[in-house]
Amino acid sequence: MNVVTPILQLIGSLGFLLYGMKLMSDGVQNSAGERLQRALSVLTGNRFYSLLTGLVVTMIIQSSGATTVMVVTFVNAGLMSLVQSVGVIFGANIGTTITAWIVSIFGFNFKISAFAIPVVGIGYFLSILKKGAYKNWSEAIMGFGMLFLGLSGLSDVFNPEQLGWLFNIQSNGPLAILIGFFIGIVITALLHSSSAFSAIVITMAFNGLVTWDMAAAMTLGSNVGSTIDAILAALGTSADARRSALIHVMFNVFGTVLALIFFKPFLNLVTFLTPGGEASNIAIRISMLHTVFKTLSTVVLLPLQSVLVRLSNRIIKDQESEVAAGPFKLEFIELSGKESATTHLIQVEKAIADMTDVVTDMFDKIQIGVTKRNPEFIENYEDEMSRVEDYADQMHEQITHYLIKCQSLHVTDKQQNHISNMIQITDELENMSDNCFATIMLISKSIAKKMEFQSEDMERLLPYIELVRQFLQFIRININKQITPEKLELAVELENGIDAFRKDLKKVARKRLEGGANVKAELLYIDIVRKIENIGDNCFSISESLTNW
């Protein structure tokens, strides 16, 4: 029982710590994370702005792993360039040090449980006010309290009387340093959180269970172990996304190797920078070590950003399938504890915008076919449009499947409605691609069968097609944005104009039929008019969905 009891208490305390950190991070991300993540997805190329953004985002959401996963996801989706991602990764590495400071400043200056239990209670009662209006922030508050409850439990467990036999590593020699370093790598990789492991190291060091040298070695090791999230997030992604993860690994490994080579001088520098020097609180010293390590690594490597990018390009080559056009893929990367619905939804928005471009390009071929009714149109576009239509079907299938996967994450009611709207818009875009392809096939059929149309009949189609093209451009400009009531009025005007045009064209075609015109040609002409009008209907349905964006 002397062995089992402290181990069980360790497991329970660690569970409180990890769950508290997850609850706090999730609560903040669900409250403010959407704005933060959208800020990440529209970064400029300025390296210092990128660094500052990564720093601020990570400080707020309390997870460099989550930030890095966002970065890899955005690079994979084409929302962020590889160069932009470097600054964000550097900033995230500095931002993650804030957790160690919170633990060292608040965790050991007073009785933790006296502070933590009321915080959990406040968070809970806040969650039941106004039908959960403060649900996300209340979760963050409860997570904050649970984090310190976990620290309190760890503080009780990590003392020489309880677990001294298990952590009896007091040597300051090279072997002990290496052992501590590898312990930091392995445990951080298993926990998927360098912040949680830092809290554990600070607690052990504060209680005298490990020496200053040992705590420093374990902290350095945790920086290498924390790269596991980026590595897992990069599996199965584009070359640039994998390069982004590689740069994150290189940043941490390069800084760690330098710190180990100059281990004693580095520790002396940290001690010098810590108020009180060697007599200072060891918890504060470990936090200072974490911050100095990350900051120095950034200062050294930020000017070498272009060198890191070139090196990553040399190590990870473009695959042939990425150079040539291939089947559309939108893979859902699941990473335990790091999933963010907003990150996934931003990626889907990019895919929807790409699908809109594909459909717009298909529609442009209709105008070419009506203007140039010759065999070259069939030769140039029939097979190509068949492949594009198949590609649009793949996009529809992949995006819908991805959105269904998103529903399995922790999503808010607003995000659930957003997902439903995106599924509907994707359906309409797929229907639009079908209508575009059907129209192109009708034009090809009329050319192949050498159907004769009066020149004025085809000329009447051009302003009709132009009106639908304007509607499609309206959708393209406003896709992934909320349409205002004023813009919806414009959509209604376009829809009504298309309907009126369609009625006039069909009326003229019927008169020609009654006058003895070629039946097959006139019926095909009416089919073309109807298909183009269907595209306008698809545009209007998308406009209505965007009003609820």
Number of strands: 0
Residues in helix, %: over 70%
Model regions low in confidence, pLDDT < 50 over at least 5 residues:
320-325
Mind describing the biggest β-sheet?
none
* Beta-strand residue fraction: under 5%
* Silhouette: elongated
Q: What is the CA-atom radius of gyration, in angstroms?
A: 30 Å
Distance between the termini: 58 Å
Helix segment tally: 23
Oligomer description: single chain
Order of helices and strands: HHHHHHHHHHHHHHHHHHHHHHH
Mean pLDDT figure: 81
Helix-and-strand structural type: mainly alpha
Describe the fold and architecture.
The structure is a single chain. This protein has 549 residues and is mainly α. It is built from 23 helices and no strands. Helix 2 packs across helix 4, helix 18 packs parallel to helix 20 and helix 21 packs antiparallel against helix 22. It starts with a helix and ends with a helix. The relative contact order is 0.08. About 1% of the residues have low confidence.
In brief:
The protein is mainly α and 549 residues long. It has helices at residues 4-41, 47-61, 64-77, 82-95, 98-106, 112-127, 135-157, 160-163, 174-191, 194-206, 212-225, 228-234, 239-261, 263-273, 282-301, 305-315, 320-323, 341-371, 375-406, 413-448, 455-478, 485-514, 519-546.
What order do the helices and strands come in, and which of them pair?
Elements (H helix, E strand, L loop, with lengths): L3 H38 L5 H15 L2 H14 L4 H14 L2 H9 L5 H16 L7 H23 L2 H4 L10 H18 L2 H13 L5 H14 L2 H7 L4 H23 L1 H11 L8 H20 L3 H11 L4 H4 L17 H31 L3 H32 L6 H36 L6 H24 L6 H30 L4 H28 L3
Helix pairs in contact: 1-2, 1-7, 2-4, 3-4, 3-12, 3-13, 3-18, 4-13, 4-15, 5-10, 5-15, 6-7, 9-11, 10-11, 10-15, 11-13, 11-15, 12-13, 13-15, 13-16, 14-15, 18-19, 18-20, 18-21, 19-20, 20-23, 21-22, 21-23, 22-23
